[in-house]
Fold:
Amino acid sequence: MRAIEIFPNTDNQANLQLHADGSLRHLLTLEGLDRSLLVDLLDDAERFVTPPGRAAARSHSLVGRTVANLFFEPSTRTRASFDLAAKRLGADVLNLDVNTSSRKKGESILDTIYTLQAMQVDILVVRDASAGVPAYIARHVNDYVSILNAGEADTSHPTQGLLDLLTIRQRKGRFKDLIVAIVGDIRHSRVARSAAQGLQTLGIGELRLISPPPLAPDPDAFPHASIIDNLDAGLRGADVVMALRIQRERIGSLDGIPGIDEYFANYGISTDRMKGAAPDAIIMHPGPMNRGIEIESALADSPASAITQQVANGVAVRMAVLERVCKAMELR
Ligand code: CP
Structure:
């Protein structure tokens, strides 16, 4: 049984996540974070990127600290990379198994958090299907505890946004003038929202959101993007193409959404469709992928694909974020 809880108000998260001196206390959203902080986080993450086959980067910056992963929704990449990131920085790590936790006996999310806080957990990494949960927790924890949003409803996935920015910077060497096309279920995508916020702050040329009309976003959620329903028109000249899966877990009814074959024919990204993009265009995907639906399998494994690099960057970005909130904690 899950207790009835209301998570009010997702406003003012940008202020909530910074200390008075501007340093990072919580990471809840990329919205409202300034350019210099985003660039600093990308630079920090770059220090933790090591070539495949070499020993992973490590530091002792979180020795004595405890990080708890609380994933109230499934995850492979985000959860594993936060786990590895915290361990590679020397932290003690608790992966709470939500399915066998006292949440199943009706304990509220705040009582769960207060319990972990009493055990001297310093950083809580939270994924939840309800909008507002990370900010709600952030408003209630002690001054010396940090909350990191690991994926919140269709609202926000800030560390995914950062790893996408890092991957684009590594592959393209710049943001200015880039045409970025995000393709698929934009309406239900927290990945698209965080990517759009970060790309807007760093200043790209153009953001195009391509989807069938039932999966198109509310334009107010993406004020600086063009919303397009024709894939070839949207891909024309694009430097970066990001494919998204259909978020079936957030869709009440699949009415009006094309079936698999029709979807791939009209919105699946393939080597052939990519011919309309820039000659050196890259293809990205946050994962998990549905090969043959939103992306052709051969394209996902091709030299144009940055998907494995995104995963590798996920660990580096999470190390950078953990280190930064921990350093800010130590100055208090
Ligand atoms: N990209 C992403 O959030 O993947 P997971 O759901 O596997 O964490």
